[in-house]
Amino acid sequence: MLGKGEISPTSSARHPGVMRGRALTPVVLLLVLFASVVSAQISPGPLSRAHSTLNGPTNCVACHKLGSLRTYKCLECHTEIAFRIAAEKGFHARVVKKDSASQGCATCHSEHNGENFALIRWEPSRERFDHTQTGWALDGKHAGVSCQSCHTAARILPGERATIRMKELDRSYLGLSTTCVSCHKDPHEGRFGLKCEQCHVTADWKVLGRFDHSKTRYPLTGAHIQVTCAKCHTPGTDGNPRWTGLKFARCIDCHTDPHEGKFAPKVCESCHTTAGWRTVSNAVVQSNFDHSKTRYPLLGKHLFVKCDDCHKGGDFRKPLAFDKCTACHSDAHQGQFLKRPDRGECSSCHTVGGFKPATFGVKEHASTAYPLEGKHAAVACAKCHLPAGTATIYKLKFASCTLCHKDAHLGQFGAAPYNNRCEDCHNVQGFRPSTFTLAMHKSTRFNLTGAHIAVPCGDCHKAGITPAFKNVAQYRFDDRTCTVCHRDPHNGQFRERMARVSGGRPAGCAACHTVMNWEDLSNFDHGTTTFPLVGAHRAVSCAGCHKPPKLEVKLTNVDFHAAPSACEGCHSDIHAGQFADSQKNAGCASCHNSAKWKPSIFDHDKRTAFSLQGEHRSVRCDGCHKNVKLIDDKRVLFYKPTPKECSACHGPEIKKFSATSLRAAWMEVSAL
């Protein structure tokens, strides 16, 4: 193998005459010595035994193209492989691309690895090689055959031998034929050609999976399809199966007559077909044998009954009883209908079209002790008459609904006076709606009055009220107070008032409210509280004193105990604190009362140093008290200070009168 630009010496092996008769010149000796040194330096390693004759640097170009050691010339020697690739035949044509030429060979065949290195790299191994890549898959019995069983020199076609370069042909995988007879002996000795696959498969030689018997003079139909070949193709005089010359014109050519000629001259096919001698149904027989001409025409399911089910032992001349169904069929109901007028004749409920469904319907059920009405008319028979084969019970008890229906109320009406009589509240037209009316509700322990009359039943009687009735509506309550159904919006503020007994039981919400209307508080007497409503307070709305929180408009979340009892708790001080000292004791009530704000009940004679006498008693307050100030943009009348001198109100002229004259005038006025 030469480096780039080197001149290849002439191989003596290929051109033996070149060096013959000449002495080695010093130049030649130098070249030979140089080649040995170069070979030791650039050769990847010795070649395998098959290519060992090409060892040495002078033979590199025998396998590598000059100027490119990575370009191979494998197919120039292995022409049998090159031919198969070009013809797109076999394994190499599938794994080596035409345009890659010899380049693809190195994928599986690696050289320069030593004399004993195996040139073939199996992927993943020879035993697990995917034979489908050769174009001939190993399936059926072939899958378990070893490589050496087929790939032998003896099985290589004569025309292929000359093309294979390998000397040991037992090691070659080329040259085999895909025809069966190349490996297997033809037991038919060529009578059916060489394409065994037309009849046989690789799974089993004896399985004729591909042979089409319909193309012969005797197509196989019915039960004949399942018959093995050897049953008909019996050995001939030569010991081999007979494939031709067999009789098949009449059934008796193969089968014996089980009737022993009783139906002669009729042939077998007048009653039977290849579908099966015993399994054939009367529907098939009818096409050849007309049973309608007998005393018992076959109809419905009888058409599919096997002949020997009635004609035991194949005796077709023995008379059979068929006046009643029970002549052939057993009583499936075990005598439950024997008391009927027809003694339980099957045809009163069933037909030959089929035992199921029965013809006994709602109309016929009306003649029984339990006519089907309402929802019961749509109930399937099996819902009441539970299927148990011949043990199915048709004579049922029906004294009460609970014999068939479970108690939907979990025993709430089991005791007296109800005793689980479903019909008191329901009927067969439907479980819902209930027939229990408002008038009937009066007989209960909770008579419906007022707004309760308009409440749907389900609002009070629902599941989950108590743990015992988690999934079932509750109808009976030991506790019938309001809070069982209604949430206490006052969060227990009136617990004591609600607990007071009224009419033999706690008053509950009725201590304040009525069932007519929640907002009707006619039962509540504010006079029983610590703050009785009198005077103008009686006209004030509840929310006027009991303020809802967070700008709410309803009293739901009001703390009623938080309402102030002092005037200033609700009313603002319009006097701007002038009477703060006096209000410490009596508050606003020292001058006003709840009847009305004006006139004031302020006693000017007792509470001030200026007693109102005479004409002063009729003077308006603001006639003397005129000191008005603006407080927070509001006009406020201040009562102090107010002058006590007459001249402060009446002017300086009042001084002209003497005390005596004034007193006399006063007395005179008072006398009037």
Topology at a glance:
Elements: H1 26-42, H2 60-63, E1 64-65, E2 68-72, H3 74-77, H4 79-86, H5 90-95, H6 147-150, H7 158-161, H8 229-232, H9 282-286, H10 307-310, H11 362-365, H12 381-384, H13 438-441, H14 457-460, H15 495-499, E3 501-502, E4 505-506, H16 542-545, H17 567-570, H18 580-583, H19 604-607, H20 621-624, E5 627-631, E6 634-638, H21 646-650, H22 659-671
Antiparallel strand pairs: 1-2, 3-4, 5-6
Describe this structure in words.
With 672 residues, the protein is mainly alpha-helical. Among the domains are: 121 residues, no CATH class; 76 residues, no CATH class; 30 residues, no CATH class. The protein has 22 helices and 6 strands. The strands form 3 sheets. It has a two-stranded antiparallel ribbon. Strands 3-4 form a two-stranded antiparallel ribbon. A hairpin with a 2-residue loop joins β3 and β4. The N terminus is likely disordered.
Q: What structural category do the secondary elements indicate?
A: mainly alpha
- As a whole number of angstroms, the C-alpha radius of gyration is 63 Å
Mean pLDDT over the full residue set: 83
Task: Count up the helices.
Answer: 22
Q: What is the tally of beta strands?
A: 6
What portion of residues belong to β-strands?
Answer: under 5%
Oligomer: single chain
What form results from the Cα inertia axes? Answer: elongated
Write the H/E string, N to C. HHEEHHHHHHHHHHHHHEEHHHHHEEHH
Largest sheet: 2 strands, antiparallel
- Cα distance, first to last residue? 164 Å
Q: Give the proportion of residues in helices.
A: 10-25%
Low-pLDDT ranges: 1-40
**Lateral arrangement of strands in the main beta sheet:** 1-2
